[in-house]
Amino acid sequence: MPLPPDQSPLPNSAQISAPAQEHLPQAGWLGWVITRIARLFAIGIIVAMVVLVIEIFLRYVFNSPTIWAHETTTFLSAVTFIFGGLFCVARNSHIRVVLLYDIVGPRTRRVLDVLISIACLLASLFFAWAAWLMVKKAMFRPDGSFFLETSGSAWNSPSPALLKIFLLVVMVAMSVQFLILTFNYMRGPLPQKRLDDV
Fold this sequence. Notes:
The chain is mainly α. Helices cover 62% and strands 0% of the residues. It has one domain (24-197).
């Protein structure tokens, strides 16, 4: 006699996978803000696609290509990829090796979470400092006067300087996010066992 659908002996895919979450609870208020802002960058990818379609149409139908389409799509894509790293931190969805993490108990996992967050904080601070060195060169002439670095193309947009400034902002935000994660892992409850541990 077949079992009703809700009494099936095999778990469905919703029971196997962990519930989706917008941001990692330990990411705090900053994680919440990052996941909300991410929608704007998702729209940026769509805008980049539209610009490419327009460029193809203008180039091959009217034989009148633009001078701004390539730089615009490159800028929008680059900004999205840069922000993607910060988005992954807020959601705890970055790539990592979990060989040791998966075999230890909750207390050791919390220690590892703290140590990993501290290591990532130090790395983020280092990259933020390196980004600042790039930003200084991209924003100021050797005599100290303000000037945004441009692409040197026919359109000559300031996109290189803007990308470097954005990278600095993201690295600073990522450093703050790892600092918040460190404190919240230290004072928070022990990590729960995941479904694949049972």
